[in-house]
Amino acid sequence: MEPLRTGDPVRVRDFVLRGRLGAGGMGEVFLGWSPGGRAVAVKMVHPHLAREPEFRHRFRQEVTAARRVSGAFTAPVVAAGPDDDPPWIATTYVHGPSLSQAVTPTAPLPDDSMWPLAAGLAEALQAIHTEDLLHRDLKPSNVLLAPDGPRVIDFGIARALDATRLTGTGTAIGTPGFMSPEQAEGGPVGLPSDVFSLGAVLAFAATGSEPFGQGPQRQSFTALSPASHNWAHCTAHYAP
Fold first, then answer.
1. Do residues 66 and 60 touch, judged by C-beta distance below 8 A?
2. What residue segments make up the domains of the chain, in order of their start?
3. 43 is in an annotated binding site
4. Is 0.85 surpassed by the pTM of this model?
5. DSSP assignment, residue 226?
6. Beta bridge mates, 12
7. pLDDT at 214
8. What would the CATH number be for the domain defined by 11-92?
9. How far is Cα 172 from Cα 167, in angstroms, rounded to an integer?
10. pLDDT in tens, 109-146
11. How is domain 99-233 classified at the CATH fold level?
12. 8 included as an active-site residue
């Protein structure tokens, strides 16, 4: 975690901000505290994106979708201000490194850690899929290793399954190296696409190497217009 910089907000609604957790194409992420002392990760949208009506609409949809997901292995939404200026969303703060930080080519996860990781991530996807949502960007940097188990974060490009099935051909959303073939081709995706990404993440954890080469792990790509940018572009790990 970095200290707040000159010009950074010190409060968002009832949350007092204490430090910076990360930043990306979508916005900045801060560590905040509720009046009761609860730690949260507060994601604030860049002002230039907040001025785009289409982005505002999409962000409201993302907040609604994220609120529906709960489970022991996800980071639930605590509060949000989709109509504030700038828009923001706060999730439970997860104290732990990301999988991408914890694993290296010379130090993959030990064998006895793989089964709990696999079971936790499968349960997280089940919670997401139960709400008829897709994550669509499951990757090592979106998996946090908390003391009591993994957490899947960043539902920024989650979409309702019905809407996903209508995605136009040629639109690819996700992270190279961890997306399914149909997702990379910009075709319609469904539940199997997330399962494919889960397999790729587990292969990375077990070997320390990306299973499909050294594509940009921390940067998502999309053929959509700038107004449709999403939280997949945020590189924050929410780790101290």
1. no
2. 11-92, 99-233
3. yes
4. no
5. G
6. 15
7. 61
8. 3.30.200.20
9. 9
10. 999 999 999 999 999 999 999 988 889 889 999 999 99
11. Transferase(Phosphotransferase); domain 1 (1.10.510)
12. no
